[in-house]
Amino acid sequence: MAKTARKSTLDKDLDKITYMEEATVSLGRRLAAPGLAFLFIVVCILVAASYVTGSPGGLVIVAAAGIGAYMALNIGANDVANNVGPAVGARAMTMASALVIAAVFESAGALIAGGDVVGTISRGIIDPGAVADPAVFTAAMMAALVSSALWINLATWLRAPVSTTHSIVGGVMGAGIAAAGVGAVNWPTMGGIALSWVVSPLLGGVIAAAVLAFIKTFIVYQPDKIAAARLWVPVLIAVMAGAFTAYLAMKGLARLVRIDLATALGLGLGAGALAWAAVRPLILRQSDGLENRNQSLRKLFSLPLVFSAALLSFAHGANDVANAVGPLAAIVHTAELGSVAARVSIPLWVMAVGALGISIGLVLFGPRLVRMVGEQITRLNPMRAYCVALSAAVTVILASALGLPVSSTHIAVGAVFGVGFFREWYTEKSVRRLAHVNSRQPGRKGRMRPVRNREEQKRRKLVRRVHFTTIVAAWVITVPAAALLSGGLYFVLRLLLG
Question: Where is the composition biased (Basic residues) (predicted)?
Answer without folding.
Answer: 442-451
